[in-house]
Amino acid sequence: MKRPKLRDSSRLITSELFPINEIPENLIVKIGGYFVYLLYTGRKDISGSDWGDAFSYAIEAKHLDSPVGIADVVFDKMAWSMKTVKNVNPFTCKKIRLISGRCSPDYSYGITDPHKDIQETGRAVLGIWNERINIAQDNYNPVRTSILVRSNDLLSYCLFEEENHRYRTSDYIWEVNNNGNLIGRNIDTGEICFTWQPHGSQFTIHTIVPNHAVKFQIKQPPLLDKETILNALHFDENWVKILG
Question: pTM for the full model?
């Protein structure tokens, strides 16, 4: 759909590379090609950093590859947080859990005992997330999360995007599960939306996989054998220096 003509369009300082969840087929082909390359070189799994490399390669963007902050891949004023999870069947999974960084209520709010008042701790966890979104949106707009669900054999994939947004803390109630972790439920539906682990301060967002997610497969490439690689490199004894 074309961008609408508005009288104040001159104020627009950024434009979307493509509408959210309308990922062009040529980008899917480039992403798939990057994964074929990884498998061809003997890769046994695909990490979040690999996913950032593949996506930035496909859209010709910059992969910041930083462990701090929301923005992983940036293109002009757009930014994506890159997430990947493994699932037995990416084509049928309905809900996944996205590790979304470490949130320390102790460091950020001085909450030394997270179980003393779990509602306060839960609000603090979401407050830290919301502040990270504020920082990202101060520098980029829009800010999305690009989510890749990969199969165990790395041949099947499910891909979708979400707009990164702040959470209203009053919409959730917190409780402690059997593992001593805090879980945040939507007050209206009772659905579990978040998990926070006091040990390590890891924050996880429970995410629904939409029906419109892109599903694709790649072929298993032949592996490069050792002799082929060494011959291509013109390897000889001069490549090894014995020091003693």
Answer: 0.88
- Is-contact 159 147, C-beta < 8 A? yes
Q: What residues contact 67, with CB distance under 8 A and at least 6 apart?
A: none
What pLDDT, in 10s, does the model give residues 115-145? Answer: 999 999 999 999 999 999 999 999 999 999 9
Please, what is the Cα angle at 161 between 158 and 167, to 5 degrees? 130
CA distances in angstroms from 132 to 65, 78, 183, 221, listed in the order given: 16, 16, 20, 40
Smallest Cα–Cα separation from 166: which of 191, 197, 136, 192? 136
Q: What are phi and psi of 107, to 5 degrees?
A: -65, -45
Report domain extents, the chain.
Answer: 18-230
Task: Report whether 78 contacts 14 (CB < 8 A).
Answer: yes
Sign of CA dihedral 214, 67, 200, 168: negative
